[in-house]
UniProtKB/TrEMBL annotation:
Stretch list, region Disordered: 1-21, 76-100
Name of protein: NAD(P)-binding Rossmann-fold superfamily protein
Matches recorded under InterPro entries: NAD(P)-bd_dom, NAD(P)-bd_dom_sf
Source organism: Thalictrum thalictroides (Rue-anemone)
GO terms under cellular component: chloroplast
Highest taxon of the lineage: Eukaryota
Limits of the NAD(P)-binding domain: 113-276
Biased composition (Acidic residues): 87-100
Pfam families, alphabetized: NAD_binding_10 (PF13460)
């Protein structure tokens, strides 16, 4: 039975936050729960309704987040996360840098709309998450211990090096300059990069002037990935739309991104699905909403990436 999901946006907030302290998140992403569909959950966690009497999907996720250690364990969230400013811990981490365990996923733009969608999908997937944010306090109030929120100067190489500690994979949901600023991503096992370069390719006139800077940043980051020695997946999406995800099929035809569109929720979903399908070197593909329905994403992406690698 299909779940009815509201497309209106709703803030994620903590019970202790002030009325003006929140991060706005679009709640209509219940299809992302399928990422962890082998884990039994109360059916109420899939409900979302605009009625004040019935809490929305994101509010119910928040209820579980605030439910204490028992529910944190149920969702797979860590009990405690490292605190910034703990010098003794930092010194210990530095001394053990060579033997560190890389098991975290870093979301580079956790404040953006798509970044928040990616984070929520990763929470449901029970991943260890680190996220670069501009407002650390708001992120902590929103997500609690489900993620390690990191704020700092993205032009500072030492800050970026610290952010990468323990990171096995990176998801870049927008082009806010992370890849351009970082000196090295050696040790990272996979980078998933959401790009709009193909969507902006054929723009002309005023549209070209408005998107030219963003297009150049996307192309610059793509080039950096291609020159790196880290496996990467570049997802060249069609023009991103604030429409409900999980409602349409897809098309991965070459050249489709220049004319087609893609729901932001679907874009976030594909980023998370691509995370564990690691190419041998690096691939790039285009995707828009279309007519093709995909039942097994891991199998589909594995086949797509294998075919792309054979053409290289």
């Amino acid at each position: 039975m299909a779940t009815s999901i509201s497309s209106s946006s709703s803030p994620i907030r903590s019970s202790s936050s002030s009325p003006n302290s929140y991060i706005t998140v679009n709640p209509s992403i219940s299809h992302l729960v399928k990422l962890n569909n082998n884990q039994s959950r109360p059916s109420s966690s899939l409900l979302c309704c605009s009625s004040k009497k019935n809490p929305g999907f994101m509010d119910q996720i928040l209820d579980y987040i605030e439910g204490g250690p028992k529910l944190r364990k149920w969702y797979g969230a860590p009990d405690l996360l490292p605190k910034d400013g703990d010098q003794e811990q930092d010194q210990t981490d530095d001394s053990r840098e060579e033997e560190e365990i890389r098991d975290a996923v870093l979301v580079t733009d956790g404040d953006t709309e798509i970044g928040q969608m990616v984070i929520l999908a990763l929470i449901i997937k029970r991943a260890r998450i680190k996220a670069l944010v501009k407002d650390k306090r708001a992120a902590i109030e929103a997500y609690g211990t489900y993620i390690e929120s990191i704020a700092g100067d993205r032009g500072d190489s030492s800050f970026l090096k610290k952010a990468l500690k323990g990171v096995r994979a990176i998801i870049c949901p927008s082009n806010e300059g992370f890849l351009s600023n970082i000196e090295s991503i050696e040790g990272v096992q996979h980078v998933v990069y959401l790009s709009q370069s193909a969507a902006y390719r054929d723009n002309s006139g005023i549209k070209a002037l408005m998107t030219n800077k963003a297009k150049k940043l996307f192309e610059q980051d793509e080039l950096l990935l291609e020159k790196s020695r880290v496996p990467y997946t570049i997802i060249r999406a069609g023009l991103l739309q604030s429409t409900p995800g999980g409602k349409q099929g897809f098309s991965f035809d070459e050249g489709s991104a220049a004319q087609g569109k893609l729901s932001k929720e679907d874009a976030a979903f594909i980023c998370v699905q691509a995370l564990d399908v690691v190419p041998q070197r690096g691939v790039a593909f285009e995707v828009v909403n279309g007519d093709e329905n995909i039942s097994d994403w891991k199998e589909y992406l594995s086949s797509l990436i294998q075919n792309l690698e054979q053409l290289q």
